[in-house]
Specification:
With 279 residues, the protein is of the alpha+beta class. The chain contains ten helices and five strands. The longest helix is centred in the N-terminal third of the chain and has 37 residues. Belongs to the UbiT family.
């Protein structure tokens, strides 16, 4: 058995210490939340305070930027803590108000994207899984053509720069279980094409979450941490593809594509929240 280098052992001990400290802080936070809940009851104040939750998340966003943390990491952690606080007070965690992630390297043209559709009738829009039987009737050739066109526009620059060479001869899958759809992509003649055969690595997630990822309204770290996205198969291949997407300069994606993704993702998220609220 290989001996663990002293530096590795020392760093692991440091990580263990920080993990212990985070759990101690979490326990202390829960005690404070319980005390706060009792104080609000005595004062006749409402248990739920959305404005306060927004302020906590916004403060975390600002601190995360100053500390150089990945976008969305602090927001995801704080959202889980707020959900736990709600649970301690006997409140539902559904519809937790998580503000939109700021766009990396924003451009003035992106201002056209601001504003989410929040029409009340969105709750009558069927969730994606109810569209699955209809989508299964769409010819596979049409599905493939639409997917190749969308991916080609989104990844046009890295394709032309040869940054997707690691996919040559490899197959990566996209699975959307609530729509009953799955595709396998491979690099052929400098283009990403839908190919036959099993995927070596797959990204699996709901239609809404994948759209939020593609539009940069949610980041991969948060979605994977919350288990809203799953990576299966060849982990190294999947992480390489994911890291490339994380580095993709958002401002270089065609503006029309950014606007379409942004509005589509916001509409899908609003419809999901409205449908959950109306259940």
């Amino acid at each position: 058995m290989n001996q663990v280098p002293f530096a590795v052992s020392l760093l692991r001990r440091g990580i263990d210490g920080l993990d212990d400290a985070m759990l101690l802080l979490l326990a202390g936070r829960r005690r404070l939340v319980a005390g706060l809940a009792a104080s609000k009851r005595r004062g006749g104040l409402p248990a739920c305070d959305p404005a306060r939750e927004h302020a906590v998340l916004a403060r975390g966003d600002g601190l995360a930027r100053r500390l150089g943390l990945p976008p969305g990491l602090a927001r995801g952690q704080l959202a889980l803590l707020i959900a736990d606080g709600r649970h301690l007070q006997g409140l539902a965690a559904d519809g937790l108000p998580v503000p939109d992630a700021p766009f990396p390297n924003p451009n003035p043209g992106d201002q056209a994207m601001v504003g989410a559709p929040t029409h009340p009738y969105l709750r009558w829009l069927p969730p994606p899984r109810r569209w699955a039987p209809v989508l299964r009737r769409v010819p596979q050739a049409w599905q493939r053509q639409l997917l190749e066109r969308a991916v080609g526009q989104l990844l046009d620059k890295p394709l032309r720069a040869g940054e997707l060479g690691f996919l040559q001869g490899r197959r990566i899958g996209i699975e959307v279980p609530d729509l009953g759809l799955a595709w396998v992509l491979g690099l052929e003649d400098g283009r990403l094409r839908s190919v036959d055969g099993p995927a070596e690595a797959s990204v699996r997630g709901s239609a809404t979450d994948l759209l939020l990822l593609a539009s940069r309204l949610e980041d991969a770290d948060t979605l994977f941490f919350q288990r809203r996205l799953e990576l299966t198969g060849d982990t190294e291949l999947g992480l390489t593809a994911r890291n490339l997407l994380d580095r993709l300069p958002w401002e270089e994606v065609p503006l029309a594509v950014r606007i379409a993704l942004n509005r589509g993702a916001r509409a899908a998220r609003a419809a999901r929240e409205a449908w959950r609220a109306g259940r």
